[in-house]
Amino acid sequence: MARPKIALIGAGHIGGTMAHIIARKELGDVVLVDIVEGMPQGKALDIYEATPIFGKDCKSIGTNDYKDIEGANIVIVTAGVPRKPGMSRDDLLGINKKIMESVAPNIKKYAPDAFVIVLSNPLDIMVHLMKKITGFPKNRVVGMAGILDTARMRSFIAMETGLSVEDIHAIVLGGHGDSMVPLPRYSNINGIPLTHFLSKEKIDAIIERTRKGGGEIVGLLKTGSAFYAPAEAAIQMAEAILKDKKRVLPCAAYLEGEYGVNGFFIGVPVVLGGNGVEKVIELDLTDDEREMFNKSVEHVKKLIAELENIK
Ligand code: APR
Question: How far is the CA of 96 from the centre of ligand 1 (A)?
Answer without folding.
Answer: 9
